[in-house]
Fold:
Amino acid sequence: MAVSIRLRREGSLNNPYYKIVVADKRSPRDGKFIEIIGNYDPKKPGHNSNLDLSRVEYWTTRGAQPSDTVRSLIKKTKKLAATAV
Structure:
């Protein structure tokens, strides 16, 4: 099964809110998913995402491919975690 880490849109009109999910590549954007590993709020200023990095590592070692947006969110979250330690 081809698995990807991508965004799932939530929220209302003109108020987007996204959940970062692990899903089969063939499923629709807001369809079935395997696991929720974080969230992303583009309207919030500053650090606007929560991401479980241990689950990201778990899924990427098993072949899951993050989308471009999720890849940048992972990079920002890792950078923020490194500066906090």
Notes: The beta strands are 3-12, 15-24, 35-40, 49-51, 65-66. The chain has one domain: 3-84.
